[in-house]
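Subject: for your reference before the review

Hello V.,

The reviewers asked for a structural picture of the protein, and I figured it would be easier to keep everything in one thread rather than splitting it across files. Below is the amino acid sequence we used in the manuscript, unchanged from the supplementary table.
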Amino acid sequence: MKAAIMVPGADGGRWDVRDVQRPVVTPGHVLVHVHASSLNRAEFRRLHTVRVRPGETAPEARTGGGDAAGEVVEIGRDVSGIKPGDRVMGRCAGGFAEFALLDAREVIPAPERLSWEEAACIPIVFVVVHDALFVSGQLRAGETVLVTAAPSGVGVATLLLAKHLGAKVIGTSRSAAKLERLKAHGLDVAIVTGSQGFGEAISPVIGEGRVDMVVDNIGADVLAPCLKALAVGGRFATIGRMSSVTKGELDVDLLAERRLHLYGVSNRLRTSAQRAESARRFAADLLPALGDGRLRPVIDRCFPLDQIAAAGAWLEADKHVGKVVIRI
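And here is what came back from the structure prediction:
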């Protein structure tokens, strides 16, 4: 089968599309004929940050892709409730390939209304944002959410799910054109963050203590102004670190006085059982809306598998609004 192999190296790594052996089905897993897989920024960060010094042995190359949408072709031992031919979507290790193994516990039915490309946008980004808004954040109708880097994949998913809940959404971006595109998807207030700085851009629009929740995709360099924007009892969720700034100062007086809740959302260190529970809760809460068309992912553009390097360059250049998808 064809697959896009992530090859770390001294130059920051590269993608190699080549023929590899088809995965062997293992107990508790299903083999899926993949039709589409989405790009996630964290994967490209790993590709570029794994560098090899002269004389060292390079890490083993592996198939990229953290999610997949396709048809089940084979089920492993101890799997029930799934059969060959089922339309599914789910997290995986190796979605940039013609076939991929998925943990049966994380498999989510793919509604007929969704295209394969749309279904491929769901397993990582939408499940993570559901965790942030529904599970940890307990967002309610009528509340206000500030979403930083709103045109990103996580940002757009946050906009869509927050509007689905009936919340007001304020989005930031350095691009006025991107924010204008998001108004068609329900963005209520757009804030262009330019050369004057993030805090200086949002303060005249939001003021202090007027936001119920912040979903941050930028990093610790915007932590202080985001916390100042939160009302008493406000919640701050960090998901992305696009700026690569991971450390900042925390005003503990502000934290205490406003009774703020700060939490991170990531699946990296969660157990397989915890990831499976997240998928189950997501399906219970949002699969009906995906099935009847009330909720649909926003796709910026699709690339064929052999153009994965170009797809990655497009994403890393921040030219997209929503998700970038690989067609297998």
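For the response letter, the relevant points are probably these. The mean pLDDT is 93. The two ends are 11 Å apart (CA to CA).

Happy to draft the paragraph if you're swamped.

O.
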